[in-house]
Design goal:
The protein is of the alpha+beta class. About 50% of the residues lie in helices and about 10% in strands. Helix 2 crosses helix 3, helix 3 crosses helix 4 and helix 3 crosses helix 5. The protein is globular and about 40 Å long.
């Protein structure tokens, strides 16, 4: 709803937020019941962006939150893909990956991580 309200007040410059929300919810993109790896990756990326936009500045999400939205009861199976998608979003500047509150290289880190908004996502919010 927030994204739709923003389109009314800010016009097409924020329409990408509506697109992300609809992809995250499975309303756009490929059918969620016939998901391919590429479709899951697209939904995970959109879900990460949407979840981060709904957090206060500086707050993070757990990768499992995005995996739960996309994977339902089988969310654990999506954790490796979710981390991979987070890595792609790091490279575009949309997110940062943190461990114990400090930025880390997602390709080199093991263990629990958090995902925060990167410079690109903050500029577009």
């Amino acid at each position: 709803m927030t994204a739709r309200r923003l389109v009314k007040s800010h016009g097409d410059s924020v329409r990408f937020r509506v697109q992300d929300a609809k992809i995250a919810l499975g309303e756009r993109g490929e059918p969620w019941w016939e998901a391919t790896d590429e479709g899951r990756r697209e939904r995970l990326a959109a879900t990460i962006r949407v979840l981060l936009r709904h957090r206060d500045a500086g707050n993070t999400i757990c990768p499992s939150e995005a995996a739960r939205v996309v994977g339902g009861d089988q969310w654990r199976d999506l954790m490796p893909i979710t981390r991979d998608v987070a890595g792609e979003l790091v490279r575009t500047g949309e997110v940062t990956v943190l461990q114990k509150g400090e930025p880390v290289d997602i390709d080199a880190v093991s263990g629990p991580i958090r995902i925060g908004a990167g410079f690109q996502l903050r500029d577009l919010s």
